[in-house]
Design brief:
alpha/beta; 15 strands; Aspartate Aminotransferase, domain 1; single chain; binds pyridoxal-5'-phosphate; Aspartate Aminotransferase, domain 2
């Protein structure tokens, strides 16, 4: 069994993907070809955002977003320690200071009620992460940001297609950043990402920063990066859009089905709060004695993963930034989370096998 079955996805989309790739090989515009614009237009329309700017990866999207808001050394960005390193990494790379706030114990999203107490005169932005495909409490976060004049950058690397109160993830904040890493809900066959905004000036800044700060060819208006997404990767994402709605539907079904099958087993699924539509970027549960459980499952041919085993404020590279209260809920979650196989191509029978193996392993 695959943790994310990308080969099955390719088998079912092969004709369209191959055709799209060959079209690029034939027209030869490998950088900034017509597929780049086409994808940006389709994704902007999908999310409802005025602008979409594709970039080289989700990490690059976060970097360019922080550069676009002119983050300066010493500026503080309030974020969660319970995330992939890239979130805090880009803040620190620019000389900023990540201020870690603890999570909601049931969803593992940043606890919006703890944010306002952390705002200082140096705070420039809040960076919530839509972890496992579920958005944080964006209305509360946006209201705090508006009161204090802060930007909100949604790290939506795991949540393309998710929704919050009927609005799409990526279009819930000043700038939304997503990733097309192959195993994300919408993936390419290498690295890729995109940024979304409704602000014309910020969109222009992002476009310029993506190509070495050029406002016109060889006119370098600002310092930028080489951050383009290549045409072939855009072509792959375009082909995958053909059945993306079906995939979301299937993921939602599988998420509900996992919940049903796990009820009463002692394995506690992640909660999805009202008003949030989760895309199950990961299907994550809370368990005890995780290492033994993972070992038993892999013996039965069932791969699992841990997202993430150590919160960032306890990682060597970020420990210097610390946290006032030690973020105890993030620490606890990092010891108990385990992600189960999840992708649109997971079959009911496979899912039954996962749950049976899990239950057998807990009660031998
Ligand atoms: C995957 C991921 C990223 C980075 O995306 P890449 O495309 O791999 O650079 C950033 N943040 C989170 C939360 C992620 O899951």
């Amino acid at each position: 069994m695959e943790f994310v079955d990308l080969k099955a996805q390719y088998r079912s989309l092969k004709a369209g993907i191959d055709e799209r790739i060959h079209r690029v090989l034939d027209h030869g515009q490998y950088i900034m070809g017509p597929e780049v614009r086409e994808l940006e237009e389709k994704l902007a329309a999908y999310t409802g955002a005025r602008h979409c700017i594709t970039v080289a990866s989700g990490t690059e999207a976060l970097l360019i977003a922080l550069m676009a808001i002119d983050l300066e050394p010493g500026d503080e960005v309030i974020t969660t320690p319970f995330t992939f390193a890239a979130t805090a990494e880009m803040i620190v790379l620019l000389g900023g200071v990540p201020v870690f706030v603890d999570i909601e114990p049931d969803t593992c999203n940043i606890d919006a009620s703890l944010i306002e107490a952390k705002v200082t005169s140096r705070t420039r932005a809040v960076m919530p992460v839509s972890l496992y495909g579920q958005c944080a409490d964006m209305d509360v976060i946006n209201a705090i940001a508006a009161r204090h004049g802060l930007a909100v950058i949604e790290d939506a690397a795991q949540s393309f297609g998710a929704a919050y109160k009927g609005r799409k993830s990526c279009n819930l904040s000043t700038i939304g950043c997503t990733s097309f890493f192959p195993s994300k809900p919408l993936g390419c066959y290498g690295d890729g990402g995109a940024m979304f905004t409704n602000d014309d000036a910020l969109a222009q800044a992002c476009r310029e920063i993506r190509v070495h700060g050029q406002s016109a060819r060889y006119t370098h208006t600002r310092v930028g990066v080489g951050g383009r997404m290549d045409t072939l990767q855009c072509a792959v994402v375009l082909a995958k859009l053909d059945r993306f709605e079906w995939e979301l539907q299937r993921r939602s079904e599988l998420g509900a089905r996992y919940g049903m099958l796990l009820a009463g087993t002692g394995v506690e699924p992640l909660a999805v709060r009202t008003g949030r539509e989760c895309v199950w970027g990961q299907y994550t549960v809370f368990v005890d004695d995780r290492a033994a459980l993972q070992a038993s499952l892999i013996e039965q041919g069932i791969p699992t993963a841990v997202h993430y085993p150590r919160p960032l404020h306890l990682q060597p590279a970020y420990a210097q930034f610390g946290s006032d209260d030690g973020c105890p809920l993030s620490v606890r979650a990092s010891q108990r989370v385990m992600s189960l196989p999840m992708s649109a191509d997971l079959r009911d029978a496979e899912q039954d096998r996962v749950v049976k193996a899990l239950v057998d392993s807990i009660r031998p």
